[in-house]
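Reminder to self: tokens first, then the designed residues, so the page reads top to bottom the way the pipeline ran.
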């Protein structure tokens, strides 16, 4: 793994004086604004992250993944108000990662030209920045640009920090470790029936440490894909094979208990495509497992039947009405070409429908980009998606010399295509946990590919 020399930086007393001053500044702000010791703790965490970045980028990346996946639930209990701006813990981490991104680009700018993901990120980032000129909510647009820059930072950190298959293996283990607390919370919700209430399901839907079962389900689906990848390419012993098989079973059962149909569908599609192109034995459980569930689970039956014959009050009809209303309003307001600005869909929807119909998120990334960017924004999103698909296909073809890498890029291609299908009825682009896992893993694989070619 490529490392930045530690002695030249942490052996310098001025660095430690700067850290002490940063910590003291946090204490001062805490006393002035009466926000206890949150800022000093944030300052200490930032100093630790800075140290780990120079000492061990992979360890820093792993810690960020594990911590981030357990923070969404805390947003309803804790927020930090600073200068009339309320920030959750996950948003504080996002700001810290943005500063880290500036540092990484400054120190490792020579690696940027060889980073294959720079083009897709640049396409979307430039478009989002351009919408600031006319956005109906500039702050919301800036917040989304910051989140997208964080994704670039994390994928680039994985690209420069992962040099061997062993490094990528450790990264996958960090992915699995990040699921420990969310699954514990999910099982607690299931046992005590305190999950998300849904009129279409008789039992509460579990959501773990996330804000909604659909977010949790897509996160679990992504982990299932990486667990399969680990099982097929990175197993070193029978004990690891047993552990990964048990993990796959737990992830699958937990996903089923979210009762998120979109996750069920894309899990079926992904497994079918994987079986069709490479592992035909997967067709056997793929056929019989859904039949068994349909035969013995009334909740599963109701959920499937409702998909084909939805009630007027079902979430399917609600989505269709939302898409029609908001796109019609966007056209009537003269936003057919440019839209209302990046990350403004909820505001446009709320101004039209209010909050009485529930969530104002798009639940369709194509509709979202049309409303926020008009036909130009929709074209940019399609171009962004095609550029990632083209990159994955090219990497798959160029990895014929390394079967493990070829399998990994092939599964990443199927994963991205499955998530693109899910984006037709869910908020995949805004699903930060899923986007983190995908782009960190892709950045790491691209780094591995580069090292293997060298």
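Designed residues (454 positions):
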């Amino acid at each position: 793994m490529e490392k930045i020399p530690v002695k030249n930086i942490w052996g310098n007393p001025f660095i430690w004086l700067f850290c002490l001053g940063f910590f003291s500044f946090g204490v001062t702000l805490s006393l002035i604004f009466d926000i206890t010791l949150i800022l000093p703790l944030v300052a200490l965490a930032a100093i630790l992250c800075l140290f780990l970045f120079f000492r061990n980028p992979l360890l820093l990346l792993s810690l960020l993944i594990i911590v981030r996946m357990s923070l969404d639930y805390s947003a309803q209990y804790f927020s930090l108000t600073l200068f009339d701006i309320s920030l959750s813990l996950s948003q504080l981490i996002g700001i810290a990662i943005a500063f880290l991104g500036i540092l990484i680009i400054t120190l490792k700018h020579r690696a940027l030209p060889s980073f294959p993901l720079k083009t897709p990120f640049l396409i979307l980032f430039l478009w989002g920045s351009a919408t600031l000129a006319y956005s109906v909510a500039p702050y919301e647009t800036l917040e989304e640009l910051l989140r997208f820059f964080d994704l670039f930072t994390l994928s680039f950190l994985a690209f420069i920090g992962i040099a061997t298959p062993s490094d990528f293996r450790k990264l996958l283990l960090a992915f699995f470790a990040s699921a420990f607390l969310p699954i514990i919370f999910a099982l607690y919700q299931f046992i005590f029936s305190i999950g998300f209430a849904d009129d279409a399901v008789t039992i509460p839907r579990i959501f773990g440490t996330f804000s909604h079962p659909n977010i949790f389900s897509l996160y679990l689906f992504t982990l299932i894909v990486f667990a399969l990848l680990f099982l097929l390419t990175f197993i070193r012993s029978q004990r690891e094979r047993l552990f990964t098989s048990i993990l796959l079973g737990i992830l699958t059962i937990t996903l089923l208990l979210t009762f998120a149909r979109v996750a069920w569908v894309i899990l079926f599609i992904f497994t079918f495509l994987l079986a069709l192109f490479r592992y035909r034995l997967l067709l056997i459980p793929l056929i019989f497992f859904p039949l068994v569930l349909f035969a013995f689970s009334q909740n599963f039956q109701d959920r499937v039947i409702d998909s084909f014959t939805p009630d007027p009050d079902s979430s399917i009809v609600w989505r269709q009405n939302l898409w029609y209303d908001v796109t019609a309003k966007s056209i009537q307001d003269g936003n057919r070409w440019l839209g209302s600005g990046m990350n403004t869909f909820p505001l446009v929807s709320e101004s039209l429908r209010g909050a009485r119909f529930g969530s104002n998120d798009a639940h369709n990334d194509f509709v979202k980009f049309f409303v926020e960017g008009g036909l130009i924004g929709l074209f940019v999103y399609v171009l962004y998606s095609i550029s990632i698909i083209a990159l994955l296909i090219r990497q798959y073809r160029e990895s014929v010399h390394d079967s493990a890498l070829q399998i990994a890029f092939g599964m990443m291609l199927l994963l991205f295509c499955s998530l693109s299908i899910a984006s037709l009825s869910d908020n995949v682009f805004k699903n930060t946990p899923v986007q983190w896992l995908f782009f960190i893993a892709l950045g790491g694989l691209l780094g591995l590919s580069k090292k293997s070619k060298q």
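The longest strand covers residues 80-82.
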